[in-house]
């Protein structure tokens, strides 16, 4: 079943952020755009490249009013240790959610049950707490923060302009489409 347009299920998690442990719940997502960025595990190979890419683009996401939450099934203590020991992870300024109970990974349907790890799942959540974008990658395929940024801009645009849609490769400032009978068979 697709998670598109479904509300984020209730959860409570501890996150590591800027030298502190903080609590995060689904209520923290309301009123702003959020990204849940699941990855398999701390201290691995592809994961730090992805989290570092997000960190490099974090200010651009913040300008759009988007908060990023990276999520793995590791503990918040492991997140702190990784943050303290890795130059790449040390530059993260967004919350690193711990999901050792596997609840959040199950809620988002990315849990690899037999491994106790999460798939590479990306979820863009609107200010109403509803999922608008879902992307799942195989464990050996990293994601691109700039492409995610483009998708967020498209999601925000269509939310603000409900009678328009963004075509393939749409970028901010480019033409959109207004679905109508006149367009059927003309594109």
TrEMBL record:
<comment type="similarity">
    <text>Belongs to the peroxiredoxin family. AhpC/Prx1 subfamily.</text>
</comment>
<dbReference type="Pfam" id="PF00578">
    <property type="entry name" value="AhpC-TSA"/>
</dbReference>
<comment type="subunit">
    <text>Homodimer; disulfide-linked, upon oxidation. 5 homodimers assemble to form a ring-like decamer.</text>
</comment>
<keyword id="KW-0560">Oxidoreductase</keyword>
<dbReference type="InterPro" id="IPR013766">
    <property type="entry name" value="Thioredoxin_domain"/>
</dbReference>
<dbReference type="InterPro" id="IPR036249">
    <property type="entry name" value="Thioredoxin-like_sf"/>
</dbReference>
<dbReference type="InterPro" id="IPR050217">
    <property type="entry name" value="Peroxiredoxin"/>
</dbReference>
<dbReference type="InterPro" id="IPR019479">
    <property type="entry name" value="Peroxiredoxin_C"/>
</dbReference>
<dbReference type="GO" id="GO:0042744">
    <property type="term" value="P:hydrogen peroxide catabolic process"/>
</dbReference>
<dbReference type="InterPro" id="IPR024706">
    <property type="entry name" value="Peroxiredoxin_AhpC-typ"/>
</dbReference>
<keyword id="KW-0963">Cytoplasm</keyword>
<feature type="active site" description="Cysteine sulfenic acid (-SOH) intermediate; for peroxidase activity">
    <location>
        <position position="47"/>
    </location>
</feature>
<protein>
    <recommendedName>
        <fullName>Alkyl hydroperoxide reductase C</fullName>
        <ecNumber>1.11.1.26</ecNumber>
    </recommendedName>
</protein>
<dbReference type="InterPro" id="IPR000866">
    <property type="entry name" value="AhpC/TSA"/>
</dbReference>
<feature type="domain" description="Thioredoxin">
    <location>
        <begin position="2"/>
        <end position="157"/>
    </location>
</feature>
<dbReference type="GO" id="GO:0006979">
    <property type="term" value="P:response to oxidative stress"/>
</dbReference>
<keyword id="KW-1015">Disulfide bond</keyword>
<dbReference type="GO" id="GO:0008379">
    <property type="term" value="F:thioredoxin peroxidase activity"/>
</dbReference>
<dbReference type="InterPro" id="IPR017559">
    <property type="entry name" value="AhpC"/>
</dbReference>
<keyword id="KW-0676">Redox-active center</keyword>
<dbReference type="GO" id="GO:0033554">
    <property type="term" value="P:cellular response to stress"/>
</dbReference>
<keyword id="KW-0049">Antioxidant</keyword>
<keyword id="KW-0575">Peroxidase</keyword>
<dbReference type="GO" id="GO:0102039">
    <property type="term" value="F:NADH-dependent peroxiredoxin activity"/>
</dbReference>
<dbReference type="GO" id="GO:0045454">
    <property type="term" value="P:cell redox homeostasis"/>
</dbReference>
<dbReference type="Pfam" id="PF10417">
    <property type="entry name" value="1-cysPrx_C"/>
</dbReference>
<comment type="function">
    <text>Thiol-specific peroxidase that catalyzes the reduction of hydrogen peroxide and organic hydroperoxides to water and alcohols, respectively. Plays a role in cell protection against oxidative stress by detoxifying peroxides.</text>
</comment>
<dbReference type="GO" id="GO:0005829">
    <property type="term" value="C:cytosol"/>
</dbReference>
